[in-house]
């Protein structure tokens, strides 16, 4: 899901959609949305344990009901900095406007997709179902510096779209962090960062003729044995 934070004193959230002008481009399809909104209650975690020896320590904290609804909300609440959040141990995720692999993905995006890291989890495995981002040179591996121009040597504008996967290694032994072009297509990628589990997507506003910008879709599974991470 996409996380939207509501401030304490706000009773409404405004979502703006910026779309192409249909009056000047009447052949474009009519834009529509289907949105499900779920309110998640934030609460003080210590408030759940108002019993036994911890009761004395938590008397000054606001009471929080320990119910199935509270457990559900705690499970679903995304960590700060995550635009998308997947709390389940396995599932699938895709770029915005993936459109069943036809794309194109949206320009000028910078956001993180996060995954729940339980105490027994040491990493995450991504299995690519589809991956096709822009690239700037068809003679490279589409990894790391191939995906982002060094500002010291920057010349004419070139594509810098990429998916960042920390501490990534493919089943073929290829190591990198920034993936662009088709570098992650048909790949199994293990990510074993010491901190949170996440990927980070960045897109610019450049479009190059004959270079597809279809986006990506991955299946994922968290890992609890990173010695045999492949």
TrEMBL record:
<dbReference type="InterPro" id="IPR000859">
    <property type="entry name" value="CUB_dom"/>
</dbReference>
<dbReference type="InterPro" id="IPR058698">
    <property type="entry name" value="CUB_metazoa"/>
</dbReference>
<protein>
    <submittedName>
        <fullName>SFRICE_035522</fullName>
    </submittedName>
</protein>
<keyword id="KW-1015">Disulfide bond</keyword>
<dbReference type="Pfam" id="PF26080">
    <property type="entry name" value="CUB_animal"/>
</dbReference>
<dbReference type="InterPro" id="IPR035914">
    <property type="entry name" value="Sperma_CUB_dom_sf"/>
</dbReference>
<feature type="domain" description="CUB">
    <location>
        <begin position="82"/>
        <end position="223"/>
    </location>
</feature>
């Amino acid at each position: 899901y996409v996380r939207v934070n509501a401030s304490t004193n706000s009773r409404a959230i405004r979502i703006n959609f910026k779309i192409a002008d249909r009056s000047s481009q009447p052949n474009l399809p009519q834009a529509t949305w289907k949105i499900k909104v779920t309110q998640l209650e934030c609460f003080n975690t210590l408030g759940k344990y108002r019993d036994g020896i911890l009761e004395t320590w938590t008397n000054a904290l606001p009471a929080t009901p320990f119910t199935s609804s509270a457990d559900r909300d705690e499970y679903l609440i995304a960590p700060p900095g995550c635009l998308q959040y997947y709390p389940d141990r396995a599932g699938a995720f895709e770029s915005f406007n993936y459109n069943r692999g036809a794309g194109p993905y949206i320009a000028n995006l910078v956001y993180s997709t996060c995954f729940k890291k339980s105490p027994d989890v040491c990493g995450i495995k991504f299995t690519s179902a589809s991956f096709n981002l822009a690239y700037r040179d068809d003679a490279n591996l589409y990894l790391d510096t191939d995906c982002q121009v060094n500002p010291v040597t920057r010349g004419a504008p070139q594509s810098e779209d990429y998916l960042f996967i920390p501490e990534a290694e493919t089943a073929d032994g290829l190591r990198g962090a920034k993936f662009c072009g088709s570098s992650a297509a048909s790949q199994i990628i293990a990510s074993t960062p010491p901190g949170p589990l996440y990927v980070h997507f960045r897109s610019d506003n450049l479009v190059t003729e004959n270079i597809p910008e279809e986006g990506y879709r991955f299946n994922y599974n968290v890992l609890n044995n990173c010695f045999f991470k492949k």
